[in-house]
Amino acid sequence: MSFWPTVILATPAHSQVGQALSYRSEQALPVGALVRVPLGKRDTLGVILSCLDTAPTDIDAAAIKPISTHLSQLPPLGHAWLDLVRFAARYYQRGVGEVALAALPPELKKLDPTQLARRLTRNEKGRLAREGAVTAEPLASEAAEPAEATMAQKDALDGIRGADKPILLFGVTGSGKTEVYLQAAAECLAKDDTTQVLVLVPEINLTPQLEARFFERFQAHTVVAIHSGLTPAQRLQSWLSAHMGHARIVLGTRMAIFASLPSLGLIVVDEEHDPSYKSQEGARYSARDLAIYRAHATPHCRVILGSATPSLETWHAAMQGRYARFDMPDRIGDAAMPTLRLVDMQRQPKQTVLAQPLLDAIIARAHLGEQSLLLLNRRGYAPVLSCGACAWKSDCPNCSAFRVFHKIDRSLRCHHCGFAERVPPACPSCGNVDIQTVGRGTEQLEELVANVLAAAPHSDGRALRVGRLDADTSKGKGQLDAHLAAMHSGDIDVLVGTQMVAKGHDFRRITLVAAINPDGALFASDFRAPERMFSLLMQAGGRAGRAAAFGSRPELWVQTWHPTHALFAALRAHDYPTFASQELAERQAANLPPFAAQALLRADAKTQAAAQAFLTSARQRGQAAAEQAGIDIYPAVPLTIARIANVERAQMLVECTNRAALQRFIQQWQADLHALRHTPEGKPIIRWAIDVDPLAI
Ligand code: ADP
Ligand code: ZN
Ligand code: ZN
């Protein structure tokens, strides 16, 4: 007897191949089973979506190919997982197969059944060996014991226990949020022998302490990590232990939201406001939003969103009562919140980079053995080189952006396409040898700080030292770890860096944090820029004074040309709720998210005109349906950086106050978009994509 399974495969939404293909099998296969099937000339991994015992009537049964292999060693993917993948595909307007297969570890797609069996045996041996080692040594270290919860932590834990909606844990840096995650996870694991916990973090390399604390606390239960820094083999191993139920805790970045967790009971989203939870390629999903969905769709699964500065979407949901909010306003052990010191740049001498009072404060603290953190969101030495004699600037030939001057290897590098050249000895346009730098980046700031520190050694003659942490100095994990270690050991007195330094680190000796030039965000065209700036400054400030007993009063310095801006008043009072209500009022008045739902249609082409023509045609085709549904389609515009690597990029905003209506419209509109591929407007398009709930517009 034959069975007729439908199988989802990694076919992109654009392809004409449907959502699931029919195959033939000699046995009945469970939904969610992993199989290898022929597709064209290849054999490819697929997931069983359904299995019928009668042949489909719409295709010639004789032409239907048999599946090649059933990977029967692996339990099938669960209904909840399939449901998550289907929801993500529908909501983010992609193919189910594309989303499902992208969610599986790449290595799984390569292994044949024999290799897979070998891998499973090896993992099992390793697991038993580890478990043996743990039982032989039953005494966990004292440090791993949970602390007695504070009142605020107890409230939050009680709330989590009884929660029937998502929990927002709103607590400043150092208020004990991580301890709440740890204890909530412990309770979950104690329930039975199967319940699993998923912990999402924005960037795992930047938060080694969080990882370490989970490993330390839960060494007896398998904790695995899932992120892009793993080798393919490691990723497969982590995925398998989660899927087989051996791993009880999975710690990961946004991709881990798709991990197969058959007994999921708790999801934690740490720093839930972080933009890195939104994917910028393929299905442009938000792991934070999918966490809410996944917890809702999984029986008895809770979800905790933690942040000192929640996204306005989350804050709004909490204000409306859709999420339960628990506040942790105080730092553990009475550690003080940093005092805000605004430097009015209008009153500083011309060309000031670091104001004198700030320099004095940094040096004074360094002499006391305390560290400072200087934040400048621009790497390289200078963002532009420019010729004073003619109009030449260091444009990138491939992008509508300047190439950045890196003094360290005397290169001009484009941060968008990677194009790099040695700095020309003279102006390439007029031959003038006196080319000037314009503006400054972290490299130059490091140089400047080094000069200042050199003139102010310790009283016993020991020199003060500066370090730099940005994408250029942390290419490998080893390099990043070395910087972090130097900071922790106190080998560095002043650390200069991009926003990378503001995230997560638990540096105990930092008492001063300074944002050198954050003004850009106050007047950016992106309506989310102030929200991001507030959160970055709060988070950066949170780096200062984490240890109550250590050092001088913590300070957050901000050099600004607009010291009277309302954002700073809220920052001074550490008052996120006031800032949020101001911003939400503005968003409501302007009908922006979270009061409206948005999507972007993006198109790439060789010319800007072609990219926009495609979007304009799409708009014309959708116009009538959009009007009927109360949806606004705005005119096509170039992206802020219109050209990258010689590809012109344009986008078009689609907006509606009703999210469901917007979803329905885009769903229908997809047919128009696919049809456009075969028109004159569609031909020159390199790619197009829909971004639902875009973060940057
Ligand atoms: P957050 O995640 O909000 O930044 P943490 O959970 O890291 O805060 O807590 C800050 C510091 O306080 C950590 O060193 C942590 O070990 C400690 N801590 C947290 N909760 C308690 C508690 N209930 N009793 C004692 N120390 C605690
Ligand atoms: Zn010139
Ligand atoms: Zn470029």
Task: Describe it.
This protein folds into four domains: 101 residues, GIY-YIG endonuclease (3-Layer(aba) Sandwich); 195 residues, Rossmann fold (3-Layer(aba) Sandwich); 180 residues, 3-Layer(aba) Sandwich (Rossmann fold), CATH 3.40.50.300; 96 residues, ACT domain (Alpha-Beta Plaits). The strands form six sheets. Strands 8-9-7-10-11-6-12 form a seven-stranded parallel beta sheet, with helices on both faces. It is an alpha/beta fold. Helix content is 33%, strand content 22%. A hairpin with a 6-residue loop joins strand 17 and strand 18. Helix 1 crosses helix 2, helix 5 packs across helix 6 and helix 17 crosses helix 18. The protein is built from 18 helices and 28 strands.
Question: And the CATH topology of the largest domain?
Answer: Rossmann fold
Averaged pLDDT: 90
**Low-confidence segments, ≥5 residues, pLDDT <50?**
135-143
Distance between the termini: 55 Å
Number of helices: 18
Bound molecules: adenosine-5'-diphosphate, zinc ion
Please state the CA-atom Rg, rounded to the nearest Å: 27 Å
Order of strands, main sheet, comes to: 8-9-7-10-11-6-12
- Known CATH architecture of the largest domain: 3-Layer(aba) Sandwich
What share of the residues does DSSP label as strand, in percent? 15-25%
Instruction: Estimate the helix proportion, in percent.
Output: 25-40%
CATH class of the largest domain reads Alpha Beta
The best one-word shape is globular
Number of domains: 4
CATH-level-4 superfamily name of the largest domain: P-loop containing nucleotide triphosphate hydrolases
Number of strands: 28
Q: Which structural class matches the secondary elements?
A: alpha/beta
